[in-house]
Amino acid sequence: MSDRETTPSAGRSGDQDPQEATTGVQGVGAGTPGAAARAVGLFKQYGQGDTAVTALDHVDVEFVRNQFTAIMGPSGSGKSTLMHCMAGLDSATGGSAFIGDTDLSTLRDKEMTALRRDRLGFIFQSFNLVPTLTAAENITLPSDIAGRKVDQDWFGEITSRLGLSQRLTHRPAELSGGQQQRVACARALVSRPEIIFGDEPTGNLDSKSSAEVLSILRTAVDQDNQTVVIVTHDATAAAYADRVIFLADGRIVNELHAPTMDTILATLTGIED
């Protein structure tokens, strides 16, 4: 892991006012330069007729390159659905989701699979490691499937930074939960994706392991110019981000820049009241 000690609200790029909050989020239109991903009028509905449930209600949002964004909201607010639709893990009912300039709605199944494999990194709550493979094999698995050669210098730097150098021959069952999630982080980082999506990446971890994983993601943005978007219910995790967007009833209702624990909790309280 990096020698740099990262704490919530520390080490962010930009000069935003720590108390800055933005409401009434504006539409993103054709997108702005520097957007790693964006949604335009994104709509997701489950079921039909009287039983229809709207998970996303025509959402417009952008995720800026080289920035750490957290998505928060009450249970059922649509935060995981938003991430899944924008990452190509689920299809939208209407509207568009873009990775860079690529409209996901125009891709066939094989093209979508290739985009997820070649341009995106994923970190999930459940780790999603292959139990029969070693840590090293799990880290390089997406590149191996794609037939791409792994940059061994970068592999060595990432695994050393994440404290995995002495664990590369171990299988997941021989690793702690925190070590398994660090393997998942290394897998997401090693291919230098355009954007890393995390769905509750610290949800199954204790506080020490959670802090390690969040520090890894913070360093990836600050040191490696990576773009990170996570869904989380944890204000401590969200405080590592440069920006937090808040959903309620399938809509973005607020956002914070350079958030702190206090501003996050206050915003959540206002949404849930």
UniProtKB/TrEMBL annotation:
Keywords: ATP-binding, Lipoprotein, Nucleotide-binding, Transport. InterPro entries: AAA+_ATPase, ABC_transporter-like_ATP-bd, ABC_transpr_LolD-like, MacB-like_ATP-bd, P-loop_NTPase. Residues 37-273 form the ABC transporter domain. GO terms for cellular component: membrane protein complex; plasma membrane. GO terms for molecular function: ATP binding; ATP hydrolysis activity; transmembrane transporter activity. SUPFAM superfamilies: P-loop containing nucleoside triphosphate hydrolases. It holds the Pfam family ABC_tran. Residues 1-30 are annotated as: Disordered. This is ABC-type transport system, involved in lipoprotein release, ATPase component. It comes from Corynebacterium halotolerans YIM 70093 = DSM 44683.
